Amino acid sequence: MRDVLRALGLWLILTFLGETAIILGVPFPPSMASEAQVVDRAFRYLLIVGAPVFTFVLSVLLYSLFRFRAVGDPPEDGPPVFGHTTGALAWLIATSLLALSLVIQPGIRGLMELKFIHPPSAVAADEDEEALVVQVQARQWSWLFTYPQYQIQVKDRLVLPLGRPVHFEITSQDVVHSFWIPAFRLKIDAVPGRTTSLILTPNQLGRTTLEPTLRVQCAELCGTGHAAMISTVEVISADQFAAWVDQQRKK
After folding, report:
1. What whole-number distance in Å separates Cα of residue 175 and Cα of residue 139?
2. Which of 85, 92, 180, 233 would you call most buried, defined as having the most Cβ atoms within 10 angstroms of its Cβ?
3. Residue 122 predicted with pLDDT over 60
4. In angstroms, rounded to a whole number, what is the distance separating the alpha carbons of residues 110 and 130?
5. What would the pLDDT profile of 221-243 be if each residue is shown by its tens digit?
6. What pTM value is reported for the model?
7. How far apart are CA 159 and CA 167, in angstroms?
8. Would you list the DSSP string of the chain?
9. Among 120, 136, 148, which Cα is nearest to 233's?
10. Contact at 8 Å (CB) between 141 and 218?
């Protein structure tokens, strides 16, 4: 019983330290899209809930390692160890309930929140109110961005207006790629012969040269040039975006 209490005390100490570090000291990269906040909340919640499980296993291992370690070569096999049915059943029930709760929150609830941040009605007839459509074509090893509302096309440079929902329509010319902007958190596969979609709303001004996580990065191993399949991203004001569109049309 004394060993159990000591291991329990170690678990409580490690859990306290872990939770304190998570709540006060875990830095997240800049969150530069409205949808990214949903992902950040979910990830922080998973860290908080998962810490006691991790520290429990770690405490048992560390305590057992130092308390019951053998010195030198053992002269004979150790005594047999029998399972504890009540303890195993309690562990199974507790972890099952924890897993089920995580499926609901932040799992299903988070997906529903992301789905309904921008309902289909967000795309309106008036150009000043509609979502910006950006067609993304991935290829080995570059990105091609088409703005069909403005009849312009840009390679390896994604320019977005601040505060306007962006509807990405993503496909691939050759192999499977993955469209990912780390500062926006969400990513989705670019699949040959299919079009996947993603809606994101930039909520901070920025550019890749100032914030490295604000970039388009392929997140699916796609060949020898995978690591270099990067595109710059710029988030600018609505007026600057209109001026940029006019400049591109004149080229």
Report:
1. 7
2. 233
3. no
4. 25
5. 999 999 999 999 999 999 999 99
6. 0.78
7. 13
8. -HHHHHHHHHHHHHHHHHHHHHHHH-PPPP--BHHHHHHHHHHHHHHHHHHHHHHHHHHHHHHHHHHSPPPSS-SSPPPP----HHHHHHHHHHHHHHHHHHIIIIIIHHHHHHHHHS-GGGS-SSTTTSPEEEEEEEETTEEEEEETTTTEEEESEEEEETT--EEEEEEESSS-EEEE-GGG--EEEE-BT--EEEEE-B-S-EETTT-TTSEEEE-S--STTGGG-EEEEEEE-HHHHHHHHHHHHT-
9. 136
10. yes
The answer to whether 238 and 165 are in contact (CB under 8 A) is: no
What token pair was written down for 242?
Answer: 């209109």
The angle at the Cα of 79, spanning 77 to 85, to the nearest 5 degrees, equals: 135
pLDDT in tens, 47-59: 998 899 899 999 9
Q: Rounded to an integer, what distance in angstroms lies between the CA atom of residue 130 and that of residue 179?
A: 23
> How many residues does this entry show for the chain?
251
The pair of structure tokens assigned to 31 is: 């969150």
Return the biggest CA–CA distance within the chain: 86
Residue type at 40?
Answer: D
What are residue 233's DSSP bridge partners? 158
